[in-house]
TrEMBL record:
It is found in: Cytoplasm, Cytoskeleton, Spindle. GO terms for molecular function: ATP binding; microtubule binding; plus-end-directed microtubule motor activity. The lineage of its organism: Eukaryota, Viridiplantae, Streptophyta, Embryophyta, Tracheophyta. Residues 48-390 form the Kinesin motor domain. GO terms for cellular component: mitotic spindle; spindle microtubule. Belongs to the TRAFAC class myosin-kinesin ATPase superfamily. Kinesin family. KIN-5/BimC subfamily. The keyword Nucleotide-binding applies. The keyword Flavoprotein does not apply. Its main location: cytoplasm. This is Kinesin-like protein.
Length: 625
């Protein structure tokens, strides 16, 4: 990065200087009109903080020991269900969020669904905040920063919200051929101390934290909070921001715990401020400003489970304390309390505008599916579910005429010149009168604060005496408790023996259950086959019944035909009998008549024969004669 690019503060155009095309101007004016109307609606009604829930998969250690999973995610219904075992009864608790991403979700899925629209709102002139919250080891830093870039500089598929947002911002600005100026800040909040992660290291480097420069948190009198003396890096390309991120992230405080080998021990806020040049219909130049705050909160943790000791335990205590203050602010906002305790911690002061202020805010809550983390997971789910009810009143930042901005810059230059002149004229360090009066007022406020702290110290001394007396009484109580402890330990040993017996019985019961489950499984398979066979037989029986019905119909038709034929046969038989009777009578009469005729013929023949014989005899007689 050359000297012109590494300048801090100020406004200079670092993009191509071509005049935007008319189509670009009209599209930007249209979006500006839409955003203005949306801003009015948001200001009147308020906008709920968007809450996204992401559940990480089981890690390698959890998979090795087969840790039970107690969290289930339904992305389509945007639900998360936690299974609790209370008094040997499973009780499921279901939480609804704006978006839910399960263990198999990818970085790009979360970004395109939840974060990408926020980047567009930043470029429309809104201040937006995205911050990750959750137990240590649930993937907050992975979600926000992701994996490192590849050696060839290509974009990694595991890249997190910050690098993807940076890439999207530059892609949109370059596609619009816009003139813009961009600057970034990167700070760390550790043990209630703010450190600039972009501050140049001193020539004489000290060990660890001494090389980091603590800076003050100030209020501008309008309800907003700013960090005095924070370094602003002007950037021109996405690669410059990636390098700044890597440099700042390397300075963040991390440590290994039992829950996370690379646990972030501080809160970090990475801010991107963008000034974009636009043109009014009259051709005047306007400057539109948007800001994106990307916050990676340190992980809340159970000190007994994380293995933190001594300084790490105190460190974890400070982290949990700041997150507790954040939770109180959220509760106060949800309950519409008259007093919101922003001033109880520096974290809540830094996030003041993001919680109940004029900023559009998105919370990414990260959880673990493991049963070992169920208590912390439920705490995170409750926290995130309450945060859904916070209403912000986002306002689009006021656009400035370029001439007005130049005037402000000239005023700033004049102020700096006065300071330089005052310092140059004297041997010591001198500042202008206005600056001196301001610092005197700050000193007075600090003196009052010290006085209050001294009074607090006196009351703390009194409390210490009371605590000492309480400690002495506790010593006597401890002796009694030691005796009870010995008795309890004996009972514990007996209970452990009983427990081992119960565990053996439990193991045997599990074996019996598995055998029964195996038998039930086989019975279910047999039942399934029998049901399938029954369905086949039923189909065959239905077909057979249909055939029988057809057969009975045929038999019925056949019976009708046979009845008809039988009637015809009987009729024919009757007629035949009548005819036979007639024929019999006719034949009988004919036989009688023929017999009579035969008899007559025989009589005639006999008479003829007798006559002939007589004649013959007569003829013989005649011959003889």
């Amino acid at each position: 990065m050359d000297s012109s690019q590494s300048r801090r503060g100020g406004l200079v155009s670092v993009s191509p200087s071509q005049t935007p095309r008319s189509s670009d101007k009209s599209s930007r004016d249209l979006r500006s009109g839409d955003s203005n109307s949306s801003s009015k609606r948001d200001k009147e009604k308020g906008v709920n903080v968007q809450v996204i829930l992401r559940c990480r998969p089981l890690n390698e250690d959890e998979l090795k020991v087969n840790v039970p999973v107690v969290i289930s995610c339904n992305e389509s219904r945007r639900e998360v269900t936690a299974a609790q075992n209370i008094a040997n009864k499973q009780i499921d608790r279901t939480f609804h969020f704006d978006k839910v991403f399960g263990p198999t979700s990818q970085q790009r899925d979360l970004y395109h669904a939840a974060v990408s629209p926020i980047v567009y709102e930043v470029l429309e002139g809104y201040n937006c905040t995205i911050f990750a919250y959750g137990q240590t080891g649930t993937g907050k830093t992975y979600t926000m920063e992701g994996a490192a870039r590849k050696k060839n500089g290509e974009f990694s598929s595991d890249a997190g919200v910050i690098p993807r947002a940076v890439k999207q911002i530059f892609d949109i600005l370059e596609a619009q051929n816009a003139e813009y100026n961009m600057k970034v800040t990167f700070l760390e909040l550790y043990n209630e101390e703010i450190t600039d992660l972009l501050a140049p290291e001193e020539t004489s480097k000290f060990i660890d934290d001494k090389s980091k420069k603590p800076i003050a948190l100030m209020e501008d009198g309008k309800g907003s909070v700013f960090v005095r003396g924070l370094e602003e890096e002007i950037v021109c390309t996405a690669n410059e921001i990636y390098q700044i991120l890597e440099k700042g992230s390397a300075k963040r405080r991390t440590a290994e715990t039992l829950l996370n080998k690379q646990s972030s021990r501080s809160h970090s806020i990475f801010s991107i401020t963008i000034h974009i040049k636009e043109y009014t219909p009259e051709g005047e130049e306007m400057i539109k400003c948007g800001k994106l705050n990307l916050v990676d909160l340190a992980g809340s943790e159970n000190i007994s489970r994380s293995g933190a000791k001594e300084s790490r335990a105190r460190e974890a205590g400070e982290i949990n304390k700041s997150l507790l203050m954040l939770g109180r602010v959220i509760n106060a906002l949800v309950e519409h309390s008259g007093h919101i305790p922003y001033r109880d911690s520096k974290l809540t002061r830094l996030l003041r505008d993001s919680l109940g202020g004029k900023t559009k805010t998105c919370i990414i809550a990260t959880i673990s599916p493991s049963t070992h983390s169920l208590e912390e997971t439920l705490s995170t789910l409750d926290y995130a579910h309450r945060a859904k009810n916070i209403k912000n009143k986002p306002e689009i930042n006021q656009k400035m005429m370029k001439s007005a901005m130049i005037k402000d810059l000239y005023s700033e230059i004049d102020r700096l010149k006065q300071e330089v002149y005052a310092a140059r004229e004297k041997n010591g360090i001198y500042i202008p009168r206005d600056r001196y009066l301001q610092e005197e007022a700050e000193k007075k406020a600090m003196a009052e604060k010290i006085e209050r702290m001294e009074l607090d110290s006196e009351s703390k001394d009194k409390q210490l005496i009371e605590i000492q007396e309480l400690y002495n009484s506790q010593l006597h109580l401890t002796a009694d408790l030691s005796d009870k402890l010995e008795k309890t330990e004996k009972k514990l040993k007996e209970t452990e023996n009983s427990l081992s017996d119960l565990e053996e019985k439990h193991r045997q019961a599990n074996a019996t259950i598995k055998e029964k489950e195996f038998l039930i499984s086989n019975l279910l398979k047999s039942e399934k086959k029998l049901v399938e066979r029954a369905f086949e037989l039923r189909t065959e029986l239905e077909n057979a019944a249909s055939d029988v019905s057809s057969l009975f119909a045929k038999i019925e038709r056949k019976d009708k035909i046979e009845d008809g034929n039988r009637a015809l046969v009987e009729k024919f038989q009757s007629q035949l009998n009548q005819q036979l009777d007639i024929l019999h009578k006719t034949v009988s009469n004919s036989v009688t008549h023929q017999e009579q005729q035969l008899k007559d013929m025989e009589d005639d023949m006999q008479s003829f024969v007798s006559t002939k014989s007589e004649v013959t005899s007569k003829q013989g007689v005649n011959r003889v004669l």
